[in-house]
Every structure is written in C-alpha cells, then in structure tokens.
Fold each of these.
Amino acid sequence: MSDRKRPCPKEQDIDADCPFTIVYKANPPRAEEKREKEKNGKTCTRRDRHDSKHFQLQTFDFPRTSAFKAMDVYYVVQPSNRWLGMTRYKNFRNGFTCTAGDFVIVANEQSIKRQCTENHVQDGNSKLHDDHWIAQVLEIRALDTFNIYARVSWMYRPHDIPPGTLRGRTIIEGRQPYHGPRELIMSNHMDIIDVMSIKETTDVRRWIGSDDEEIKDAFYYRQAYNCRSRVLSPVPRT
C-alpha cells in the first residue's frame, strides 16, 4: 500500500488530526454473549451491559462467497463517552450538503501540500488527483458548529492493495491488469475524520454488469477488501 495511505488497522486505527480512535474486535464482543444469555433466560453481568453499550456492529452490503466472507466488523470509538455524548445528525453543510451514506472526496496532507505549491488554471472543472482519498460517510456527530466529525469507510484505489493480500488462492499486491483508471475497492477500514477535510461529495457506483455505460465518467467498484483478514473479493463474472 502507498505510504500516503493510512495503514490497515490492527487493534486500532488513529487519525492524527482527530481526537477519536476506532478500536476493532477480532472476535464478536460480549454483547453477542449477552444476546445469547437473554435468549436462554440467563442473567447478564455488569460487564455484559457495558460492552453491549459501547461495541457496535457495522455491516457492509457486499455479496458473500465461499472465498470471501462477510466484511462486518465490531468496533468502538474511543473515548466512547465523548463520542456517544455528541449529537448524531443525518447530514451537515459546508458549502454543500453531505448526508450519511454519501461518498466524499477527502483532502489529506499530501493533497493540501500539492494545492499550496502548484499553480492551477481554473477552467470550471476541478481535476481529482490520485492523492485525494475517497470514502463513504457512515455516521455524523457534532459537539457544536465548530466540532463536527464523520465516521467513514475508505474506498481504496487499486494501488493501495497491500502486500500479502489474498484473492482466491493467489497472493497479490497493488494494481492488477483488470483494474480500470477510475476503479475503486470497497473496504471495511474505518476512521473518524473532521468534516472540514471533506472537499465535496462524489458519485461512486457499484458495477455488477458488463455495460461500460453504467460507469461512464463515474468512480465505480466491483470488489471489496477486508482489512481485518487481508482478503480481496474475486472479480465478478460477467
């Protein structure tokens, strides 16, 4: 994976510009045990209730196959009391309206540095460089009008596929011959970001057919990457 990209999370993933951390659970948390106990009529402990309150399940809508299991992950945002204490919103405005579920273009240190050093010719069409990141907004929370945060899942570019990635029985890395110039890869790699780093919303489509018109002039994805298991889904057959 490019060193411009935040590395795949292990036990936790931290955005240096944001006071929140996402911690992942390798196994289902005790909340699952809590539900089983309730189903069987058993009493839940205080620790059961604590874990159930804080750990969340994030699901991802991508087909499962025998070679590619579910991408769903259990996570908690820390500090959890501060995160959960903020108000949750459906959208925010920052010169444009962004709603939970939208795909967005995210600025980062590399893209900001480029913008500060390059001379741009404004022709009415902004060029998207490879050093911008693309993500899907999953959740929006705010303390006030100056402190608004989004929980996002990253859309990887093909060159971000890290060494040791398993696709079927093959170990791969980086861009593959079948990847298109505007192709992205869905991932379950999440972060909390300040919404001020979001430049704009963008169109990202899931391509499940063979008609190029479906993805003309748009970003698209047809594969998914599980950053927890380092497995890339197979290319759908058309």
Note: The chain has a mean pLDDT of 80.
Amino acid sequence: MRILSILSFVLLFCSGVLAQRQLDFSGSIGISNYLGEIGGKEKNRQSFVGDMKLKSTRYVVGFHMRYRMDPVFGISFNMMYGRIAGADSNSTNFGRRYRNLHFRSPLIEASTQLEFTFFKFKKYGHSYLLTRSKGRTSIDVNAYSFIGFGGVYFNPQANLNGIWYSLQPLGTEGQGVVDGRNKYSRFTMIVPMGLGYHSTINRNLRIGFELGWRKTFTDYLDDISTTYVDPSLLSKTTAALANRTAERIAIDGTDDPNTMDYYDAGDKRGDPKHNDNYFFGVMKVGYAMPAKRRRSSGMGLGKIFGGKGSRRGYRGRSKFSRPKYRR
C-alpha cells in the first residue's frame, strides 16, 4: 500500500502544476513477455531476452499521464494491465521438457517514471488545401530513456484437467507445510527501465512507441523457484500440479513411456538465484495539452525603466487613445 500512496501523491502533484507544465494523456496497446524458469530455448536459463520464446508473447494495455518539467526531463504516471505465460513444452531443452510445467498470470502494474530526452527535433510549416492555406503545422520528435519505480500484482495459474488453478494458495513447493518455506506475496516492487520515442503532430496529437524492461524482486511470477517436495505433504491436486514429470510427454514428440522421467523430493525445480522479470513493448496515442503561459508580474526591467520590453505598459493604454501633441 505504501507504493500506491506515493503514486497517489505524485498524481496530485502533477495536477497542481498543470498551469505551469505541458501535460499529456495517452492510451497504449502492445505485447508482453517474461524471463523466468519456464520455457526458454535449447540451453539452460540465460539472462535478458536471450531466453524468451516468441510463442509466449501475450498482450498489454495501459493508460499514461506525463508532464514535462523542462525540455529535457519529464515524469510519467502509468497504469498497465497485461498477461504473461510460459510452457516447458515450447522449449527444446531436454531437462525443461521433462519438467513439463506451464503457467499464465495477469499483471496489474502501477509505476512512476523519470524520462530523459536525449534527442529532439522540431519542424514547422503550413498545410494546404488545394491553393488555399489550411493552417500552420508542426512536428515535434523526441527520443528518451526512462527509469522509475512501481509495483505489480501477479497470480500464476496452471491448468489441470481443463480447470485453471491459482498456484500461490496451493503451495506447490511446500509453502506453508515445510519448515522455512512461507507463502510468497503476489505483489512485488519493480524497477521499469527502457527507451521510448514520441512525436507531437499539430501541437496536440501525440503518438509514440516504448520498450520497457521490468526488474522485479520475486522469483515467483511463474510459481517456480526452489526444489520438489514430498508429494505426501501436499493435497492430491497440489501434488499433481507441482510435479508433472509423470505425464506422458516425450522429447521426440511421441507418447513413448521410455522417455518419461520423474523428479523426487529435493530435486531441483527452479533457480532461486535469479529473480523473474518481464518486458512490455507498446504503441501510444494521446493528447498533449498546450502549456499555459503565466503573465509577467510587471516587475521586469522593461517595466521598471519604461523600455520597449514592457508589454504591460502598452496594454495599460486604451486602444482608442491618441497621443497629444503641443504646437
């Protein structure tokens, strides 16, 4: 709840500076993927995107609010909903296919990100309708990097006989029944980081693309982390979901029982040395609110010395007044 309180404060702060900063609102849609114990390629677990499987790609949608503190720095508030999934059956790795686990999970994410614009390009011109000018146009192109903090809720599930079960309450690795193994939280802090691009067309329409990596602080996005436990300590359903190596799947794609294997209690089920992470790639479309200019307080040098820089001095006169001349 602490992270939600911080994000709420940031949202209120953004509203308070609306009169001073350029603000934009946008929606997004894109793809998601995850890096963890399940799936992967022919090797054992690899870091970063080298272990991701295209078949595990799912969707993500989001809502974003961003304001520019200055031409270089900005801050954004983001709400995202997505899904991730993985299956050992998609891997060509011998040990992973024998393990035969799979999962799916929703992701409900809230985050705040600091953006640094490292490339900026502006172009102004006019648009025309036949031979008549239609109005002034402008294109504003920005490339940026970002890093932030946030939180995400997840709930790994697996299918057994056509029914999807939430795995955390079951304790598939003996959580709650084996000493020293407590049930993990389905909420974790995250550090989002990545690159983005957006263009502002005709001052208000804003479109962009963003690639973001989420570093988490949990190894249970997929409900896999440590070792197998004695199935006699688990319920029948939990035992069936925890150890699926007895199911008839074969490395060569047949149902030959000679290709079957079975892991015992204490055998490695996951890798607790590495936390799980996930990835979002989204397209954004939004509306950019123009910055509101604040009028001068009238204490500038032009006002003090009565120079031409004092625009207030001219505004103070009636447009109908005429200077008086002496003969």
Note: The first strand starts at residue 22 and ends at 35.
Amino acid sequence: STVDANEIKHHNQFAKEWWDKNNGPMKALHAMNDLRIQFIRTGLMNVNKISEEDCEKAKYLQNLKILDVGCGGGILSVPLARLGADVTGLDASSELIEVATNYATSNLKPDINLKFINTTIEEYSAPHKEEYDVLILSEVIEHISMKEIFLQYCIDTLKPGGSVFITTLNRSNLAWLTAIVFVENVLNIVPRGTHEWSKLITPEELRHYLKNCGCKVLQINGILYIPFRNVWCFVPQNTICYAAHAVKQI
C-alpha cells in the first residue's frame, strides 16, 4: 500500500479541530482555499472545460465529476461541491472521513453532490477507471512514499483529457528552512512533524512521474504562504511550494 500508517496517525490527532478555520491546526489549509480554487478555475478555463460565461454563474463547476484524493476532513471538497461539482472525497483515515461527513451533513444543503469514502486509492481505482473529469491531490503527495505508483492509481480514475491539480512542497533548502523549521517548529502554525524532508518532491520529479503516468504538465506556479497574515499568493519562483496542472493524454 502507498498509505503510511504514521501519516494517518499524525493527522488523526487534529480531527476535532479540523474545521477551526481561524485558530485550529489546519488554518493554513483553510486559508489556501481561495488560491486553490482560483488555480483550478483558471486551469479548467485553459483547457476549455469551463468558459468565462460559466464562471459568472454561482455553480460554474456543474456537470464536472471531481475526485479529491487524500481529502482529510473535506476542507477543499466542500467548496468545490458548493460550486456545483459532483465531488467524491477519499481518505484512508476513518476519523477524518467522519469529520468531513459530519461537517457536510450539518452545513450543506441537500442538493449538494458530495460524498466521502474511507478507502485507499489502490482499492478505489480499478472499479472507477476513467470516471472523473478532475483529480485533486492537494497537500497529499508529500506524505506518500511510493509516489509514482500512487499517481498511477490516481490517474487511472481520470478520463482521457481530464485535468489533475496538485499542490505540494518543493524539496529545496529554502522549503526546509521556511516550511519546516520556521512555520512548523518556530511559529507552530502547522503542527510539528507534518512534513518529512525525504518525502518532499521537486517540480522536475513531479513532471517526470506525471509523464510516466501518461499526463502532460501544462502549468507549474510558485505559491507562498505568508504566516503573519495567514494568506497564500502566487509567486514567480516555485522554490518553496508550488501548484501544478496536468492533463491526461488522449
């Protein structure tokens, strides 16, 4: 399995505070949503999956099936569903899937198409081959050891011509200094031990893995977290964190 039991154990300890947007251990992830959704929207416009006219509607992701792998407590799945997409969130942690399901049940209208499933991508992939228009791997791949195998299982669920959106940390000295030493160990904004240096992935490595899995990378954007303001922004350099958009070749 590509799932690391220690990663699940680490994230489970924050389950009760997962949806505390302002002061909880996941506040940086909550703050990332605007940037993530903007990146997804722009990427889908660039491949003509949605139009400018669509984006004027409240539910501009309608008619798109999205798979959010490693969805945790549903921080990104929920707003994507609110934008009209038919969203499935997968996570190997039963505790976090319970958090996500409880939040959705309590806060979403019945007409929202969103379901959460406690399973691994290995188990889910084969019965759902080429089912999804969009695949999301946000702040996930840096927690996986066997990255290319994991990516292949994920991309198998994507329709030919479908888009995969990934956000992650670069394996660079600057990323180690800022994201791990400063943000985790000094400021304690992200829980200590969340990121392991050896599991981080460079844009070049990600591009190589995606190519091997039959995808073409269209965009890699540098992104930066500003901890004192709890906001994210796009930056020209991808030295610390980055967002990638790739398309599965037909």
Note: The chain has one domain: 5-248.
Amino acid sequence: MTAKKQVPTKRNANTLEIMHDKNKTEDHQFAEIGLSATTLNAVTARTFSQQTMGEIDLTETISVMREKVAQVNSGNLIELEATLTAQTVSLDTIFNELARRAALNMGEHMSATESYMRLALKAQAQCARTIEVLAAMKTPPVVFAKQANISNGHQQINNSIQSSTRTHAHTGKTVNQQNELLEHQKNGEWLDTGKTTTASGIDKELATVATLNRGTNTAR
C-alpha cells in the first residue's frame, strides 16, 4: 500500500514558538522574551496592522522585528530612511485631505472648518519635522571645534586669604627688583637703606615684605 503524504499542520498564528536554551530555565526564558522591547513592539505592530494586513503570525512577526533591529545595530540605516520618507508622503497626504475638508465646510460650518484646518496644520508641522530628521540623517551637521590655547606658564587665581598672601609675596619680589634697579642708577651710587624715612600708610605693607625679602637674600 502506498503511504499517504502527511500534510504539515498549520501553526497557530497566535502561538509563540520559543527555542529552548539549556542554560536558562523555562520561566526565566519566557520572562526574558516577554519583557523584551523587541517582542513588545512586535506585538504592538501586529495588533495595529491587523485591520489592514489581516492576521500575521506572531512568531514570524517577532523574528522580522529582530532582523530589523540587528540591521540598525550593524549601522545600516536604509530602512529607517525609507520609513521616514514614506511617512513624509503619508503626512503630506493627510494634510491635503484635511485641508480639502476644511475648504468644503468653509462659509457654512465654520467650527468644522476650524477643526479640520487645525488638524491639517498639525499634519503639516509633523511632515516638516520628519523631513528635517531625514535631512539630518542624510547630511549630518559639521561641528567646528575651536581649540583653546592654554598658557604653560604660572597661573594664579586669588580666591582666598592664602591667595592674597601669595600675592603680597610676589609684590615684595617686585619691590626688591625695583630696589636692585635703583642701585644701578644715579651714576653708580648705592641706595642708602639705613637712612631713616617716614613711611606712609600705603607703603607699610610693602616695606615689611621688602624687609623679609632682604633677609632671604642675606641668607643666600
């Protein structure tokens, strides 16, 4: 007798087939798939497309969604560009249809005209935004980075009392250098530091610092 050919049974479109991973428990694997962003968005896309495309197999839907994600992860943005281009056309079509309905109600039903026109302008704005995103993907903006030249020399920021003290120390060095210059002026005459002079209130602090510097120079 001739054996009858076995007709493959059709898989239930609402059943998700999972390949068992021996390194994971069944509950863990089911939770991992159920909480996956790829799985959840595949289910959402399948639900919204049923009115247009009919019933789509759940397992194949998730498989195709994973392929799309892998394509983008590899750097291939062709399908994303195609999606934005198609959405631009759809949004432009929606704008024109809503604008047409607004024009038909104009003069008799102004409230309907206003509602249609408001929706039409929203579709127009979204269409323009989609075009901007698509243009940015095709021609990314060029970034001009200006290099900051930082001096390698000594830099000082006076933010505290200690900084102020360091500033006075540098001032003392300046006074000491000026005294050394004065010593070489006036036909080689030395500056008489032993002569008693009356220091003004402004020069008291500088005079004290200069004394400390002379002591330092003597130690040398």
Note: Residues 94 and 123 are 7 Å apart (CA to CA).
